[in-house]
Amino acid sequence: MADHVRRLSTEKNVAQVHSFHSFIRSTDADDKSKVATLYDDWTSYDEDVQKVAYKGPSESGVMVSQYCKDKSISILDCGSGTGLVGEVLYPHGFKNVTALDISQKSLDIAKAKGVYSRLICTQAGKHQMPFEENEFDALVCVGCFIPGHMNQEVFPDWLRVVKPGGYIFLIMRTSYLQEGEFKGQFDQAIQTHVDAKRWVKVEARVIPEYFDMFEGVGFVFKVLIVDKRLEDL
Ligand SMILES: C[S@@+](CC[C@H](N)C(=O)[O-])C[C@H]1O[C@@H](n2cnc3c(N)ncnc32)[C@H](O)[C@@H]1O
C-alpha cells in the first residue's frame, strides 16, 4: 500500500483527507496508471469522505431527480469510483445506471453494492468512451473534475453519448475552477458549446459545505445537438 494511503487509513482524520487532496491534485492527467493506482490503493475511500461530510453524491440524487422524472432512463456515472453516486440514485428509483471509472478496484467495490447495471473500466477524456452515440439519457460526473484527473476535454465525448434533450450533471469543488487546467479554460469550453448550440447551461447551483468547509458547484446542461458529427470539436 502506498505511504499516503497507509497514513490515511491508519490516522483517519479530516486533516489527513485534506492532505490527501493536496496529493491527488499533483497527479498527471496524462498518466493513466498514476490516477488509477491512486484510487486502486485508496480502499478506505468511502469512510474517509464520509468524515468530511462529502455532499457530492447526495446532491447528485437531488439534481437528477429534479430534472429526470422518468426513472427508467439510462444514466452514465462518469468517474463512478466506488459507487457512492449509484448508491444514492438507486433508491431514488434510477436502476439503469452504467458506471465508468479508470480504477478497476474502485469498480469492484461499486459492483458489490449492486446498484449499477454495467461497469466499465476505462479512461474518459483522452479517447472516446466505448459507447454509441446517444446511448444515454443523462450523464452524471461527481467529484472528478480535480486537477490531474478529468477536465473539460471530456465535453465533446459527453455530448456524443448523451441524447439531444438529455441532461448532463457536473458537480465539483468551486475553488478548482481557478486552478491548473481549469483556470479560464473550463468556462471557455462551456461557452464554446453554448455558442455552437450543442448544449444550454441550465444552472450552476451553489453547494455550501460540499466537502468539509469547501463550497461546491453543480452544473446542469441540456444537450441540444442532433447532428453528432463532432470532428470539429
Ligand atoms: C474523487 S473520486 C469521485 C468518485 C465518485 N464520483 C464520488 O463522488 O465518490 C474521482 C474518481 O475519478 C476517477 N477518474 C479520474 N480521472 C478519470 C478519468 N480520466 N477517466 C475515468 N475515471 C477517472 C478516479 O479513478 C476516481 O474514482
From TrEMBL:
Keywords: Methyltransferase, S-adenosyl-L-methionine, Transferase. It comes from the Eukaryota. One of its GO terms (molecular function) is S-adenosylmethionine-dependent methyltransferase activity. GO terms for biological process: methylation. It holds the Pfam family Methyltransf_11. Residues 76-169 form the Methyltransferase type domain. InterPro entries: Methyltransf_11 (IPR013216), SAM-dependent_MTases_sf (IPR029063). This is Methyltransferase type 11 domain-containing protein. The lineage of its organism: Eukaryota, Metazoa, Echinodermata, Eleutherozoa, Echinozoa.
